[in-house]
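Training component of the fellowship. As part of building independent skills, the fellow (R.M.) carried out the full modelling exercise for a liganded target. The chosen ligand was PRP. The inputs are recorded below so that the supervisory panel can assess the work.
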Amino acid sequence: MSIELEQPDLVRDVAQVLISEEQIQAKVAELGARLSEDYRDRTLTLVSVLKGSLPFMADLMRAVKVPVRIDLMEVSSYGGSATESSGLVRILKDLSSSIDGRDVLIVEDIIDTGLTLNYLVRYLRGKNPRSLRICTLLDKPARRLVDIAIDYRGFTIPDQFVVGYGLDYGEFYRNLPFIGVLKPEVYTRA
Ligand code: PRP
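Fellow's submitted model of the complex:
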């Protein structure tokens, strides 16, 4: 379901900064260093799941010191509501290149129910990568419906509606440089 926000106020609509820009950048550097070590002497294919992971992908790829290829996928869940996913996933944009025999890392902004990644992991495994791991900036375990083995995790967050650094509500707020908690009145009035 799409929501039409009339005039989002990027400052007033945020109740609280949950993770600051500085904390995000420090975590990205830490994850980049770990990946550089774990994939030493290898090349890595980063697969970003649009649109939410765009800022994380852009920062993370520059924090990784081994040679990387990048690819982009865009998926959306069928049905459900603006804040709940239905579990059925539709591929809006597929990989551009083969990942056969490659070391692949899925780059996500958030794992919530886990349904999107549960689908994507099965889909990408079918393409015969040499290895397939998952890196997510945010993990919201309170809402998990399916088990997901997360290899690289930035922050574990409580069950709050978060926006910023790629995460949206009604397609807005993605350009905030921090992760903030949206005021409930913003999503209850839509
Ligand atoms: C978000 C996020 C994940 C998914 C996680 O994407 O980027 O892909 O939801 O939720 P899940 O664990 O409950 O499946 P969204 O569908 O909001 O699209 P977007 O990235 O384009 O905002």
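The panel noted the following from the submitted structure. The chain has four helices and nine strands. Residues 39 and 47 are 15 Å apart (CA to CA).
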